[in-house]
Amino acid sequence: MSSPTASSDLFLQPSTVDGTESVLDVFLCSSPPSSSDLAEPTSSSSESIPVTRRPRTCWVFNHMPDEDPEAKYYNNSGKEEWRCKYCSKTYAKNGGNTCIKRHLFEKHAKTEKSSRENVSAKRQRSIEHALQLAETQSFKRRKLNTTSGDGHSLDGSHLEVLYIKFLTACHLPLRLVECPEFRDLLNYINNDIDTWLPTSHTTITHWVLRQFNSMKEQMKSRLHSARTDIHISCDLWTSPNCLPILGFVGHYISEDGRLESPTLALVEVEEEHSGENLARYLQELVEDWGIGSKLGYIQMDNAKNNDTMMREFEDRKYRNTLLPNFTNFYSGIRCLGYQLQCKAPPDPMYRPHYQPVRTIILVCRSS
Hints:
Elements: H1 23-29, E1 73-74, E2 80-83, E3 90-92, H2 98-108, H3 112-135, H4 156-170, H5 180-189, H6 193-196, H7 201-224, E4 230-238, E5 244-253, E6 259-260, E7 263-268, H8 275-289, E8 295-300, H9 304-317, E9 332-334, H10 336-341, H11 351-365
Parallel strand pairs: 4-8, 8-9
Antiparallel strand pairs: 1-2, 2-3, 4-5, 5-6, 5-7
């Protein structure tokens, strides 16, 4: 089994389950194939060397329809092109970006400064969200030091939320707070920092767990108030430090009508990777989040132990009153992206529709 992506936030925003681009994204964003693309691969004596493309840094790519500046578009001839976000104008990507910059400035009054303003606005929204989160929490906080300032210029609850978000997003150590140089920098920015920021990493650990539990309760509330059933995609992979990690991602329409896909759990699998053992983790997940009555489909790849996991999970359902709506084994479904990667899909249910779907994808990515 392949892997889901582990995000650095306390709760992961959803992403792909296997840690890579989905097959549809690859099809839609890569150059059109030749007629030999659907043929069986031929053996070669020399291994191909993967080509690493430099990331795009020019600001004009922030004004395309897709928010991802690395998104690629192709015309009917298969040539890469730039598409305007604000009108139907396109430019062939075979040279510099001068014409694109002129178009954005003359037609839409967009400049490089506009991109910076968008970044600033996004940053401000992130700060406002952190402040709103802090206002909903009722944790008691005390001043740690009153010798360097009165602490009135900072709010302890806001500082806690923003600092934990900073640590988790940047993968920084908890002991950073004990670094004298780091504290000197913060004290230079605001001399009230010592009033609210702890000097021990053990207190920061307590902050992390407290924020995690607070956000988990908010996520539970969103799950329970969802308009649809909670569908789950799961995958197992080996981390770079050789730990078997089983990831679960939920998919649902929220109460305010948004499609959301938060990561619900990343657990280290102990003992063997049998279906019986994996079913235990799936049941613990459903019980922990309290979503048994709203459980929908469970998506996975074609590994044999997944079939065993679903059968074992079905057997456990009859011994567990938290899963009243989960009725049969067929609530497990296959990964479409995995099927499309195969020359012949192993699941018989996909075989009659396999070639038509691939034809549609080829037409879409060349249009």
